[in-house]
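Input record, target 12 of the design panel.
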């Protein structure tokens, strides 16, 4: 039997069409977009305010031989999300995967000290954002028997003190994903969630830069993790690609913690 080439494996990993990475201009989303493209899929990615980063990443992926595009979206606005999905399907033809890797920058606060307006903003961005993208994408995912993968938090299994602004809204995302798995499986659509640990990318790095996360946060998080290190964007990206791929065709409604053992 002839050996399977890397190109054969890449082309077989996903169905035809594009993956949509929501939040692809962020540190985590960019890592996911690059990994999906490396496995042979075209990629559409979104940005909210970071247009230059989104377009630069799309250009990078095109240079590597993939079809790619960057799209502006306001996840809190249903009309904006519907227009996004229509634009992506018009440009790429079909949609086989939606990855939700978006989320506003967070600040570490006790629940008693969390500003209600900040919590409301995160609830709208995460829960309603995921709800909007799910509703808009489902008709297309049914056609391809596609997949939803949402990047959330390992805080569902072990409460991270001062992180309610992340865990509470992401709990709603997890609930929607479970509902989709239960209701849409009859159409071949799967939905799964990644419980991310502290990652050396995205909101953790942004929080350090803007002062909303204390400087000792990274060191303390690594020390509390059995593997004694932070995760990298590639750690999450590989898990996302697995859950979205044909190799995980009988996996749905699951939470996979990629956290270095933090939730143990």
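The sequence produced for target 12 reads:
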């Amino acid at each position: 039997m002839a050996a399977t080439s890397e190109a054969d494996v890449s082309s077989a990993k996903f169905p035809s069409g594009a993956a949509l990475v929501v939040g692809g201009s962020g540190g985590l989303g960019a890592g996911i977009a690059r990994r999906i493209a490396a496995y042979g899929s075209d990629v559409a990615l979104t940005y909210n305010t970071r247009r230059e980063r989104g377009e630069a990443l799309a250009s990078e992926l095109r240079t590597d031989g993939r079809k790619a595009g960057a799209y502006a979206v306001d996840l809190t606005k249903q009309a904006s999300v519907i227009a996004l999905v229509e634009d992506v399907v018009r440009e790429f033809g079909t949609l086989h995967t939606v990855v939700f890797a978006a989320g506003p920058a967070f600040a570490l606060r006790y629940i008693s000290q969390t500003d209600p307006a900040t919590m409301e903003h995160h609830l709208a961005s995460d829960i309603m954002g995921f709800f909007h993208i799910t509703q808009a994408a489902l008709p297309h995912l049914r056609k391809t028997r596609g997949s939803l993968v949402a990047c959330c938090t390992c805080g569902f299994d072990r409460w991270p003190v001062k992180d309610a602004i992340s865990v509470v809204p992401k709990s709603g995302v997890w609930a929607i994903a479970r509902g989709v798995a239960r209701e849409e499986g009859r159409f071949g659509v799967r939905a799964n969630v990644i419980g991310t640990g502290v990652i050396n990318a995205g909101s953790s790095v942004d929080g350090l830069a803007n002062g909303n996360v204390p400087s000792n946060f990274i060191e303390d998080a690594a020390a509390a993790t059995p593997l004694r290190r932070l995760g990298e964007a590639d750690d999450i990206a590989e898990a996302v690609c697995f859950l979205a791929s044909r190799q995980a065709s009988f996996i749905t409604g699951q939470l996979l913690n990629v956290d270095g053992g933090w939730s143990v």
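The chain has one domain: 16-258.
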